[in-house]
Amino acid sequence: MEKEIITHLKRDSPVTMTNALVNFKKICSLPLVWLVSLEASLEAESKKGFFRLNHWRFSRKAKCLIVVAIVAVLLVSVFAFLPKQSVGRGNVVPQSGDNSTATPPAAANHDNGSSISGIAQWFSPISAGAAQSIGSKPPGLIQSYTIINSTVWMEVAANAWAYFQPGVGVNVNTGLPYAGGTGFTGFTDWDLGCYIQAVIDAQKLGLIGNDSAWDFSARIDDVLTFLENRPLNTEGYPYQFYDATTGKNDSSVSSNEIVDAADTGRLFVALNNLINYNNSLQQQIDNFVWNVYDNRSNYADLVPSIMRNSLNSTDIYSYYVYSGFASFFSSLSNVPSKILNNILSANVTYSPYGNVSLPEASITGDPLLCSVFELNNNNSQLMALSRLSRQVYLASEAYHNATGQYVAFSEGNKPSNGYIWEWVVLPNGDTWKITGSGSSAYLNINPIIYDKVAFSFLALYNTTYARNMVIYLEQCLPTPTSGYYDGADNIGNLVADLGSNTNSLILDAALYAIQNNP
Questions:
Q1: Burial class, 171, CB count within 10 angstroms (exposed 0-12 / middle 13-18 / buried 19+)
Q2: Which of 127, 297, 348, 419 minimizes the number of CB atoms within 10 Å of its CB?
Q3: Separation CA 182–CA 166 (nearest Å)
């Protein structure tokens, strides 16, 4: 009997953790506070008779004029040394009331992303002066270098891989990953796919070998053994969450859904990449996916529903996760290209910032960037994805140029409790909207600048905007000794969570940068 897959392909998560606060308004106000203090101290000293020259005496009016003159000189001196390009500016003005359906002026010349040279006016090449201090914290990795080359990206990769060390983001006894560090030991099939992809990336980068208890083979064997033997729900499909400490259902957070096709599809993407990297594992993985032993999940029953749901889909999540299914079920081989064509042929809307063209589709960071970095796309699909991701990048930079606020839209935790999805664009033409768990209503909150998207932009485009955005996050977030933290908003409220999604995508980005821009 055919099983209906879930109708929504955007993942929910109950993971919320303790978040810290970095108040950058204090940093911005320091020069002014210092000058005010100086003025007060000078006035006090003059009253004590110290503000004299050769025993000259000044009237109160003269003293005030002198103080004002000194303050003016100090202001000029201070602002002369401030960077011309601010890395973090002002408060976010929430865009929840924006219709985002503006049409471009008749004379505007909008590039469709067909060539790099055609959109060069939006890019700001990195210069030697791009590394700028925005606070008292010592410069981070990216801020410390004027040229971001493969050496720097290897350090980024090593930082991200630090999350997947045993006892940090992986349980030391089971070898299974944590979705959110030791603070949350549950994980979904999406998180498991992130871990598999991270292990592949780390092996390609030489961050792990094949001669220890935590080498590539040992880690992958732990995962595949779990997949072959894990407990299933009453319908024979995976529970939504498993506890990494036991390998059993995490009933405290698992839902009652029969199967989460989004999580499954993401897992299938990683398993297919694992086969392509090490084909000796193909039979073992095929047996699991195709239910050869007739005692595991019958994923073939999901295929008809996927076929139906893909006909008119313009959801980038659908493209990504159905690509995972298509890797194993040949009847779905045309589904990803169909969805991508739907997206690219959708009506066009324009971001209100810079009037960058965007398709009226469901577009956000994670599935789009994972599609670019992880899928074995044919040339035409890869070109289409590159065009789409470039337009998303251009819209993000234009947003910053117009508002002074960084944006790196994706999904993840936020500083207060809850999980959100940030949409660059939606099928109704709305742009720069945020939704939360269990509701399609727009949230009136400061957007989160997600670290994984900022690094991905830097890997793909290597621009001043991407670089400065990463520098801003380096200044906001803790040093990544155990992996990169999720992100922060434009006023320094940080998402102090360590997670598999963030560090897996940053590893993807680092590998891409090293392979394509050595």
A1: buried
A2: 127
A3: 10
Q: How many CB atoms lie within 10 A of CB 369?
A: 27
Q: Model confidence over 22-79: pLDDT tens digits? A: 232 222 332 322 322 323 332 323 322 322 223 333 344 443 444 444 444 343 343 3
Q: Which residue in this structure is represented by tokens 């290209």? A: 337
The pLDDT tens digits of the residues spanning 286-301 come to 998 998 777 789 999 9
Checking if the pLDDT of 325 tops 70, the result is yes
Task: Give domain limits for the chain.
Answer: 24-171+298-516
Q: From CA 320, how far away is CA 361, in angstroms rounded?
A: 14
Edge-to-edge strands, sheet with 411-413: 411-413, 419-425, 431-436
The DSSP element (H or E) to which 486 belongs, if any, is strand 485-488
Q: CA–CA separation, 368 vs 390, rounded Å?
A: 11
User: pTM of this prediction?
Assistant: 0.76
For residues 336-348, b (16+ Cβ closer than 10 Å) or e, as one string?
bbbbbebbbebeb
Residue entry with tokens 């940093």: 27
Q: Which two tokens stand for residue 70?
A: 């000194």
Under 8 Å CB-to-CB from 178, ≥6 apart: which residues? 169, 170, 171, 184, 185, 186, 187, 191, 244, 500
What is the bridge-based pairing of β-strands 449-450 and 485-488?
Answer: antiparallel
366 contacts 337 by C-beta, under 8 angstroms: no
